[in-house]
Design a protein that fits this description.
242 residues; alpha+beta; eleven-stranded antiparallel β-sheet; two-stranded parallel sheet
Length: 242
Amino acid sequence: MEIKHYTPFLLVNILLSLAVAGLLVMGDVEVSSSAGVVASLPETLGSFESREILHCQNNQCLSSFVVSDETPLKACRRCGAELDQWAYAERLQLPPDTSLSRRQYMREYGQTFSVAVILSGEHRTSIHRPETCLTGGGFQILDSRRILVERAGKSSLSVEVLELRHQISGEKSRYAYWFSSEKYETSSYLRRTALLVWSNIIEGKASRWAYVSLLMPMSENWDTDEAALQEFIKLLGPAIQD
């Protein structure tokens, strides 16, 4: 059964309006140089090797390819168009100062994670509510839950995990994400928006935020999938820390 997620869009809009109003009243504010993570994914993570994910820039094709660094792909195999880490729609929708890194990690016995880090620039529109983008991309959200990832020397990291089903292929997957800034980490888009407003109005600083996400095939056993997520996130976190 599909579970509908009711988000307080009005509150989010009010918070964003307050942030804009604060910036207009205060004039120039300091722009944070760090989001706590970097938009640069390593080639290896523990026992995981990785490949680059590239997207066709022809809006009549929109193919995607996983490419090894040893055998780079210069053009789309299907139509010959230019390839890029950015999907065609991302190029159109996101501000030009947005940074992105995207790779697929895998190891011998078939476990895979597709990882993306999106880093906002001075524009505040680089990061959207994940659920909106996923449903617009053809995914149906079946369930959601939140997990805590224990970290040595740091507080636990809250991570939102969505259960997805692709509306065309019917394939199921798990999608995990969280947001990071220079001072804060959260898995809540609403809390991220509130913290953004707080930084703008109270601290007089425009926070730079990162959106970290990973997609993995879904098994029928939640405990198995959670253990895999926990292990991978513990490897990923320190590797992208700024």
